[in-house]
Amino acid sequence: MEQHVRRKRMVIIGGGTGLSTLLRGLKKFPLDLTAIVTVADDGGSSGRLRDDLDIPPPGDIRNVMAALSDAEPLVAEMFQHRFKGSLDLGGHSLGNLMLAALTEITGDFSLAVREMSRVLNVNGTILPAANQLVTLYAELEDGSMVKGESKIPAYLQKIKRVYLEPHDVKTLPDTIAAIRNADIIVIGPGSLYTSILPNLLVKDIRNAVVASNAKKIYICNLMTQAGETYRYTAADHVQALYDHVGEAFLDAILLDKVEIPQNIAERYKKERAWPVEYDEERLRQQGLHIFKEDIANILGEAVRHEPSKVAEWLFEYAGGLAKEDSTQMYF
Fold it and tell me: Most buried among 82, 113, 242, 252, by the most CB within 10 A?
């Protein structure tokens, strides 16, 4: 008699293009996926709907839905379609408007997300980090305060800390249950202060992640980001996570092992961005298992995580098959 093998439960926490790109690769594997998505965005179409309708911004949720959808290609393309030319509709995506409409109809953003996920035949569960309006603030190194996720990187200053208003924002019971029952919790990749940390600033999420028995792995960014992580090393990224959560909570970090071509690195320098330096001794002192894999691709003049490579490695990691680089063993 064939024995049923339970799928590994994987929770991915983040936002922005990093989260949706990773999920596009992961949905091809037999995993029980849950995406916990930031709702701190206040720019573009999402910001306009947030301000006009007093709802959480739908943009990051929309991109995750498109990534995980098994709907017909034309339907998915329509959902992502962005209007042009119109004074009122210009810049809005149809998916954002549909989520806004469903939120008005149901009176509940999380219910709108659930119903739209069903319509799009989403392969997994999508949960907003909060079911209410939140605002992200940053305290910069010079003591000045910046209000709004979209404005923080524009100051091009070192960030001392970020925090949410209201401080006591609540998450959904389903989010806590997903974290509690997870086998693997994946943090990143994505903008450290504006896509990843807003999720962990929600007290219930932070506490659940720390308490969870799941393996917790951080997928390190390939490049630093002007206005957020200028000249940050890998350990600097991890330390920022630890400082905001209040304790060390990660088990492992995934790094890319292929050196970025010099011409690509030079182009990034014009944007005040550098390849993330891997200070491995400090990472070991932070208690991390270090994994180095070929997980990036060059796309034109940009370097990006390759979703299929990262997803395949995470699937192996979830099954206990991934091995630490022999040069990184420290037990």
Answer: 113
Cα–Cα distances in angstroms (integers) from residue 318 to residues 64, 184, 218, 246, 315, in the given order: 21, 6, 14, 26, 5
- The radius of gyration of the chain's CA atoms, rounded to the nearest angstrom, is 19
Token pair listed for 121: 């035949």
Residue 290, classed as helix, strand or coil, is strand
> What integer pLDDT is reported at residue 187 of this predicted model?
98
Residue 146 phi/psi, 5° resolution? -125, 130
pLDDT, residue 89, reads: 83
| Model pLDDT for residues 134-152, shown as the tens digit of each residue | 999 999 999 999 999 999 9
Structure confidence by residue, pLDDT tens digits, 247-284: 999 999 999 998 888 999 999 999 999 999 999 999 99
Q: How far is CA 217 from CA 170, 183, 204, in A?
A: 24, 11, 19
Specify which residues 120 forms β-bridges with: none
**pLDDT at res. 326:** 43
Which phi and psi angles does 169 have, rounded to 5°?
Answer: -55, 140
- Residues 211 and 56: their CA atoms lie apart, in Å, by 27
Range from 48-57, 190-199, 316-325 carrying the lowest mean pLDDT? 316-325
* SS3 category, 330: coil
Say how many residues make up the chain: 331
Torsional sign, CA 141, 144, 148, 151? negative
Burial-class residue 327 by CB neighbours within 10 Å (0-12, 13-18, 19+).
exposed
Strands (E), the chain: 8-14, 31-37, 125-128, 135-140, 145-147, 159-165, 184-187, 215-219, 252-256, 289-293, 296-299, 302-305
